[in-house]
Write a structure and sequence with these properties.
The protein has 352 residues and is an alpha/beta fold. The protein folds into two domains: 40 residues; 304 residues, Aminopeptidase (3-Layer(aba) Sandwich), CATH 3.40.630. Helices cover 39% and strands 19% of the residues. The protein is built from nine helices and eleven strands. Strands 1, 2, 3, 4, 7, 8, 9, 10 and 11 form a nine-stranded mixed β-sheet that branches. A two-stranded antiparallel sheet has the order 5-6. Helix 7 links the parallel strand 9 and strand 10. Helix 5 crosses helix 9. The termini are far apart.
Amino acid sequence: MPNEVASSRGQRWRARLWRMLKRLVAVAAIGLLGLWIYAASFAPEREDWDGQRAALAGRTVQPLPVQPDRERLLADVRELASDKYGGRRVDTEGGRLAADYLVGRLRELGVEPLVPDYRQPFSFQRRRIRQFWTGGIETRGVNLLGLIRGGKRPDDHLVVSAHYDHLGERGGRIHPGADDNASGVATLLAAAAHFKANPPAHSIVFALFDGEETGIAGARHFVDSGVLPMTGIRLNLNLDMLSRSSDRLLFATGTWQHPELKALVDPLRAQAPIVVLYGHDQPRPFWDADDWVHASDHGRFHEAGVPFLYLGVPDHDDYHRPGDTFAAIHPDFFVDSAAFALSLLAAADAGG
């Protein structure tokens, strides 16, 4: 009798286990089907990078309208990527030294401060796993904001931005951040030099953001601060990683959201000595890292309803690594990328 009872219980348990397993398989199948339907609803292949390359292959390369000072451009990257600044992490001595250097450069160029002494301080909570329940670490950063007033439309603003912070030291090694993002900062300074010598029609704000590598904190503070009404900004041109591409490739992100901006980009990409592709902006599944719409400071402007263009290269082997040094950048490509950015900003200023 006991053996029969035990056998009956075993059969019931196996039957129950089998029913549970079938339910789990059914739920998993439904979940996978849902994910497949979700993923299939996106079509980023419409960006057609191969087709764009083919269409640009027959372009007539000509000098771009605005050229940076090559030596000054490279000197700024070399300086910011030096060990002196320790990788420029937000709220570190190296980051503060970098801010001092950049304030000096803005003064040297004759750029007007948008806020006192160019500095817009802010604080935020930098979270780590061990501080999850305690709210994080209080972290202080400082944005640097300069202005060249427009002669014809001073109340309409273009904002050119680049983050000057990087990762600092990790594992006892400095991460210099030459491409990410001393290159964007140097290009912004070259733009300031150009428009100081060639006064713009619109007012141009030169925004050097801190804390991009820790949650895009500086750009968030700028947008939320009200120091500049978002309704008065005609365009944010964000520059982040412009100096390193073995196949001389630069992406312009943002024309899917704002197709009218192709009127600015198309004439320049048709003559540029580098290959400029549209992309990384069509909607993708949430796990797809090729969506760059919120990948850098321009994402905060986009959320505020400001048209944006982001210029940047694809990730390379030294992205966020100690090997992102000045010696590793591609100088000729960088100068051409900076020329493209400056020419694009000049075209935006010349437009309505």
